[in-house]
Design goal:
The protein is an alpha+beta fold. The protein contains eleven helices and 17 strands. It has helices at about 15-25, 55-65, 80-85, 95-100, 105-115, 125-135, 165-170, 225-240, 280-285, 290-295, 325-330, and strands at about 5-10, 30-35, 50, 70, 120-125, 140-145, 155-160, 175-180, 185-195, 200, 205-210, 215-220, 245-255, 265-270, 310-315, 335, 345-355. The radius of gyration is 20 Å and the shape is globular.
Length: about 350
Amino acid sequence: MLKPGDTIGILGGGQLARMIAMAAAPLGLKAHVFAPKGDNPAFEVSGHFTEANYDDFPALSAFSEAVSVITYEFENVPAETAAFLDSRKPVLPNPKALETTQDRLVEKTFIRSLGLSCPDFIAVNSLEDLKAAVSSLGTPSILKTRRFGYDGKGQARIADEASISSAWDDIGHAPAILEAYVPFSREISVVAARSQSGDVKAFEPCENEHRHHILSRTLLPAAITPRTGWAAIEAAERIGAALAYVGVFAVEFFVVGSGDDETLLVNEIAPRVHNSGHWTIDGAETSQFEQHVRAIAGWPLGSTKRRGKIEMINLIGDDVENWPDLVAEPGLKLHLYGKREARPGRKMGHATRVTPEKDT
């Protein structure tokens, strides 16, 4: 168990690392961020940082000696880096979680092994594989690279057989999976924390709206039945246990149908704090970031109780220029990430509205 004054090492210097470091500070814990050269807003709020590549093993060694536990803000940490660090200090969540979620084929196979449902999928390693997979799953269907895909990157929609070759070109002929198209009614996610003792506390499912494949809004309560909500939480708990997970993670779901006919399909697992959980900073008794710090530090988990009706809005690209109007809105909480340049598709901040709900 960490004690106040100990240091948490964080791989990655973006907004998630920034908010983990900010959540650690009130608990008396320090942060040391390790990231390659670039725009690293987490450096601004951490007591220490190391600017080096993830294959700089002397720098990684010195980093490990300066911290008590190591975590990460993104799932594409090189496997060699995670293994090297884990041999020196605890890496939480464990490298098994990284290995499972870095590859979509491995991840989908893992999900199925737990008896959970996900969209039908077929491995694709060549154009001939892709043609056969489309013949099997039909169109429309979604081609996804097995690795390094997020926010719609590494994906191509196949509308008909004529678009097969162009889709294969779009993903750069990388190893991939073809997924069946799912006519879902909405997308939800469960953000949950699992402690070192196996205690699990999940925030209630939130409903997510995307724009150009990037999360645009998160709403609570989600427009789903209580039965669907409990099923989503139970699925997340099963995933966390199977991975022997420690820390915060998110499971994204497609909701198919409505009312009593609702069913769930697991879309993907994120082994980290998650964009759809940003509402918890202002809208829950414990934020996902404090919960993550508590879990990896070996501390008891906090309450996940929601404080009201929630709307979280992502500020993407030039949306951040609306900050004067946002900061003037009574009750709205603005969070800017300190990034230097607002590029199209780049997450620059978020804003959260919390509306108290009357007791009934």
